[in-house]
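#structure-requests
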Amino acid sequence: MSSLSLTPLRLLAFASPAIPIAAMGLPISVYLPPFYANEMGLGLALVGTIFMLARFWDVFTDPVLGVLSDKFVTRWGRRRHWIVLSVPIMLLATVMLFMPTAPVSGSYLLIWMVVLYVGWTLLTLSHMSWGAELTPDYNERSLVQGWREGALILGMLLVLITPAVIDYLGAEDVGKARVAAMGWFVVILLPITVAFAVTTVGERDVPPPKHVPFREAVGVMLRNRYLRRLLAADLANGLGSGTMAALFIFVASDVLQMGGWSSVILLAYFGAGVIFVPLIVRLSYRFGKHLTLAVSALANGIGLPLMYLVGPGDVLLMVIFTALFGINLGAGSFLLRSVMADVADHDQVETGNQRTGLFFSLLTMTSKVGAAIAVGVTYALIDGLGFMPGKENTPQALEAVRATFIWLPTLMYFAVAGIMWHFPLDEARQKENRRIIMERAEREPPIVPFE
């Protein structure tokens, strides 16, 4: 199909796999590292190192799988078969990681994290690239990514209900019960949503990508100033959000003594994100994606230090603070991805190559590098400063955890704002790029529609 009508049903179907994607991503960032460090007894330094190594492995596989995603076309199209292939890999790794039988070793954690990331990369990369190719329109791309981001936040919201209920009921082994419940959520929902998406939404006709040697492609990308700036912003955003995710459970449970309320606090955060995604989308229409993203990051950097006003046991104040902070939750993720679709168009105009999958793999790579550095460095840092999760800690150790949680993300959000404030690829330039691409496509031989 040369065009694809973006009906509400198709948008819903396309976005639905983002629910289990988010349901997997949240515990990997927030719950699994503390679970293996504390309940499974592996310790902060070892767990931080393992999660960092697994993330860097994921970084290595991202560009490879991105090239494969661009190159190999089946009768389903270029993206959907990879999404289907990811499902059994994800299901097996989820069971092994979220429902482990103690004792476990560091090698066990590392192996299954690597397996999980292979499946997750196949799923997320193919899904993001598919979304970028559903429409060539500047604003419709924000609409598609807005639906996807809304589904991501909804997935985080839904998966948080299970640990919140477990916290409320007071399960005997709360940490293990939380993680297992979130794992079952993914196992049940992933095959259902993937089946809904791939059978409801087709793939729009796009010119088949031309093969470019990887070293040549890297050289072209390094010369793409739009790409360099966007990847730098994504790296900073990933480092900031990754630090907050890695340390949140420790801040809530040990520093602020709100362990039983941690899931409820996160619900407030992601709930606000769900509510305000439509507003962020409309603001991006009015002011442009790059400026909306920059202002959002600036607001995060100004607002995060206000968390010093929250004292131990101030649950209501913490809920209010996290809800306000969650207003900007969707901006960084979906706007960065929407801009990347435009950057891929710019590259296609300059080089004649359609490499959406490769470009999105680089975007995924930089956010994962940020998250890898965040968990590896911050866990080693707070371990070296004497912090012990779930045990009695000195005031100095607790203050070190809080300061790391606040100031490193604050600096990163300011960096994102500075990078994106004068981003040069705006709506007018993107429309001109699309005009050039469409003129070229009219001169290409027709390709078979993907139904």
